[in-house]
Write a structure and sequence with these properties.
- By secondary structure, this protein is of the alpha/beta class.
- It has 2 domains: 114 residues, 2-Layer Sandwich (Copper Amine Oxidase, Chain A, domain 1), CATH 3.30.457.10; 234 residues, Aminopeptidase.
- Helix content is 40%, strand content 25%.
- The strands form 3 sheets. The protein has a 7-stranded mixed sheet.
- 39% of the residues are buried.
- It binds zinc ion (ZN).
- The site of zinc ion has 6 residues, from loops.
Length: 383
């Protein structure tokens, strides 16, 4: 009887072990400089690997739009776009044929393993990624990786370098932002002005531009600052349009992070922070204590933020017929973690029918983008 029990126990252990082995076998190990950094889930016996896992392990910047079932991620700063059930992959605007279509299983995207890594290696877009013997080997760290922790260690010199500007088009995807009388959505105005600004800056200044989003996708507020910090940005510009219950309210204003002092500013911040509820991150309401902490954390570049904010106001004022509401401060979640000078620009009140009409005009939006671009140009001269 006793021996039977021992056999049973032994059998259980063997069963468990084999089960465990089988489980690890269905994953692809990822090594970075020969150190195991993670495992990517697969389906169909490793024929397809989880893009979500790959993105997480390589800490790539990403845009996942579950509505259109598109995923954008980066390998060595090269933009890769995939779409569910499509056999093409877009790398830096060029199309490449995969061996089979992209699979979405329970919200996780899978790519044909051999085919994807084959394309990546053949194109030599990445000398740093190899897929051999069922293992992914990264030999260098992609540009955006793990810089967040080292941000504070940047030298003083680097802090005032002006190489990278981060443009953040507010809202997006399921979050339309404020909606005007004519149905104009803040997310669309913000994205359009952001794109115009990007073009002007890229064309005229020797700087790298990072867009937190360049299409109509939803992004968490924390992701926006994360992108900014990980790209070692030197200036963060978040673009929005305002709204108020009073339809007469109008004008443009630029915000800095700071303790709540003024009721109107608090209302603007509350509206801009409201997206936290869509993110499912309620209970994260910012207290004045948090804001004082954030202000202290940003004290190194507070005066730079303020300088830039007043330049934005001045340049907009020069170009458009709208009320200059000045530079204000309040608790904007999106600015809170930024490790660089940062502002949030409210271009105008979409809730004011006259201003909404203006914001709907290409020329008006172009003037606003030019104004911000000129402010950046001036700001650089002060560094
Ligand atoms: Zn907004």
């Amino acid at each position: 009887m006793k021996s039977l029990r021992t056999y049973f126990q032994l059998f259980s252990i063997i069963f468990l072990l084999s089960h465990l082995c089988a489980k690890t076998e269905s994953k692809i190990k990822v090594f970075e400089n020969n150190v195991l950094v993670g495992e990517v889930n697969t389906i169909q016996n490793k024929n397809f690997f989880s893009v979500n896992d790959f993105i997480q392990i390589t800490n790539s910047k990403k845009f996942i739009n579950n509505k259109t079932q598109k995923v954008v991620f980066y390998v060595d700063n090269k933009k890769i776009k995939i779409s569910n059930q499509i056999t093409f992959i877009e790398i830096e605007d060029n199309l490449f044929q995969l061996s089979s279509e992209v699979v979405n299983k329970n919200g996780i995207y899978y790519l044909p393993t051999e085919s994807f890594f084959g394309i990546i290696q053949n194109l030599s877009i990445s000398s740093s990624i190899k897929y051999t013997n069922d293992e992914i080997r990264l030999t260098s760290i992609s540009g955006l990786k793990k810089t967040i922790k080292t941000v504070d260690l940047r030298s003083e010199k680097e802090k005032w370098e002006f190489k990278t500007i981060v443009i953040d088009a507010g809202h997006g995807g399921k979050d339309p932002g404020a909606v005007g009388y004519r149905g104009t959505k803040e997310k669309d105005i913000a994205l359009d002005v952001a794109k115009r600004l990007e073009k002007k800056l890229s064309k005229n200044m020797n700087v790298k531009i990072i867009m937190t989003r360049d299409e109509d996708v939803f992004l968490r507020l924390s992701e926006r600052t994360k992108i900014a910090n990980e790209s070692n940005g030197n200036l963060f510009i978040s673009i929005h349009t305002n709204a108020a219950e009073d339809r007469r309210a109008s004008g443009f204003e630029t915000f800095l992070i700071g303790p709540n002092k003024n009721e109107a500013a608090v209302r603007v911040a509350a509206r801009e922070n409201a997206v936290l509820e869509l993110e499912g991150t309620t209970g994260k309401k910012l207290t004045n204590e948090d804001l004082i902490q954030a202000t202290i954390a940003q004290s190194a570049f507070a005066s730079k933020s303020e300088q830039f904010a007043s330049m934005v106001q001045k340049e907009i004022k020069k170009r458009v017929q709208s009320k200059d509401r000045g530079v204000k401060q309040a608790g904007f979640y999106v600015l809170m973690g930024a490790s660089m000078p940062n502002v949030l620009v409210e271009l105008g009140f979409i809730s004011n029918p006259t201003e909404e009409k203006k914001l709907r005009s290409h020329q008006y939006r172009d003037l606003l983008a030019t104004a911000i671009y000129r402010a950046v140009e001036q700001y650089q001269k002060t560094l």
